[in-house]
Amino acid sequence: MSIDTKTAARVAKLARIRVEDEALPALAHEFSAILDFIEQLNEVDVDGVEPMVSVTPMQLKRRADVVTDGNIQTQVLSNAPDAREGFFAVPKVME
Q: Where along the chain do its domains lie?
């Protein structure tokens, strides 16, 4: 597929990219090369090929999706400059 400079200028405008007029032919050529590569990829037969997450076969670690408080309240509050009654204490910002 061939992209002309007018189309390249429109794409640049839609993407809000400033491109000088003398750079438009090179940009159009790059767009054309990208689209040609995509057409090549579309010609590849991928029937029966399963999508993969990684090149090494492995199972992702899973944990129970349970809401907890982390059981580390005292450790978290130990970093606070001021903590009261189990919460961070902050200065009053409104009267």
A: 5-42
